[in-house]
Design goal:
InterPro entries: KR_dom, NAD(P)-bd_dom_sf, SDR, SDR_fam
Organism: Auraticoccus monumenti
CATH superfamily: NAD(P)-binding Rossmann-like Domain
CATH architecture: 3-Layer(aba) Sandwich
GO molecular function, one term: oxidoreductase activity
Helix content: 40-55%
Keywords: Oxidoreductase
Number of strands: 7
Strand order of the largest sheet: 3-2-1-4-5-6-7
CATH class: Alpha Beta
Largest sheet: 7 strands, parallel
Family: Belongs to the short-chain dehydrogenases/reductases (SDR) family.
Length: about 230
C-alpha cells in the first residue's frame, strides 16, 4: 500500500497503524522521516515524473499498489480578497490535482488485479466551508467528486474509492493554536474535544480492508459530530 504525506500528523498515524498490522507499506515524504517499517519514498506530488518514479520504486520493492491513501496536503489560509492566484492554485494542485494523478497511476495495477482500495483524506471544511480557506475548502470538496466518479467508473472491477473527512484533529498544526482558539473550536464540537490521529487512522484501516468491500463513494466524517454528516 502507498500512503502520501506519511512523515507527520494523520499520514504518519495511518502509516504506523498499517505497519503494525503487518502490511507492506510505502510512505511518501518531502521532509523529515517516515515510521520504522515503512518504505520511505521522497516525492514532490505536484511533479508527474516524481509520482511515476515513486510508483516504480514501490512496485519494485513491494509489488503493485493495492491500497492508496491520498493524504498529503497543504494550506495557504487567507481571506478571499487577499488570496493570490498562486495561493489558490498551489493548494488545489497539491491537494486535488495530485490526488487525481495518484489515483490514475494506481488504477493501472488495481484494474489488472480487479481489486483496489482508494481512500482520500478530505476535511470537514470541504463540506462546511471556512472563512479564509476558499482554496483549501475547494480542494477538499473536489476529492468527493473524484472518489464518487471513480466509484461509478471502476466499481465493477472490485475497486472502491472513499473519502475520510476529519474535523479538528490534534496535530502539529493545531498545536500552534492558542488556548482561546482551541476552546472556541471545542465549543462547536458535540464531542467537546479535538480528535486524535489514531481515530482517523482506524477509519482508514476499515475502508482499506475486506470488511468495507461494499462501501464506496462514501464520505466518512471523523469530526466528533461537527459536520453532522454533511
Amino acid at each position: 500500500m502507498l500512503v502520501t504525506g506519511g512523515s507527520r500528523g494523520i499520514g504518519r498515524a495511518i502509516t504506523e497503524r498499517f505497519v503494525a498490522s503487518g502490511h507492506r507499506v510505502a510512505a511518501t515524504y518531502r521532509s523529515g522521516d517516515v515510521p520504522d517499517g515503512a518504505l520511505p519514498v521522497r516525492c514532490e506530488l505536484t511533479d508527474p515524473e516524481q509520482v511515476e518514479q515513486a510508483f516504480a520504486t514501490v512496485e519494485a520493492e513491494l509489488g503493485p499498489v493495492e491500497v492508496l491513501v491520498a493524504n498529503a496536503g497543504i494550506t495557504r489560509d487567507t481571506l478571499l480578497l487577499r488570496m493570490s492566484e498562486t495561493d489558490f492554485t498551489d493548494v488545489v494542485e497539491t491537494n486535488l490535482t495530485a490526488s487525481f494523478r495518484l489515483a490514475k497511476r494506481a488504477s493501472r495495477s488495481m484494474m489488472r488485479a480487479r481489486f483496489g482500495r482508494m481512500v482520500f483524506i478530505s476535511s470537514v471544511v470541504g463540506q462546511l466551508g471556512s472563512a479564509g480557506q476558499v482554496n483549501y475548502a475547494a480542494s477538499k470538496a473536489g476529492l468527493v467528486g473524484v472518489a464518487r466518479s471513480i466509484t461509478r467508473e471502476l466499481g465493477g472491477r472490485g475497486i472502491t474509492a472513499n473519502v475520510v473527512a476529519p474535523g479538528f484533529i490534534e496535530t502539529d498544526m493545531t498545536a500552534g493554536l492558542s488556548e482561546t482558539q482551541v476552546a472556541e473550536y471545542r465549543s462547536r464540537i458535540p464531542a467537546a474535544r479535538l480528535g486524535a490521529v489514531q481515530e482517523v487512522a482506524a477509519v482508514v484501516e476499515f475502508l482499506a480492508g475486506d470488511a468495507a468491500g461494499y462501501v464506496s463513494g462514501a464520505i466518512i466524517p471523523v469530526d466528533g459530530g461537527l459536520g453532522m454528516g454533511h
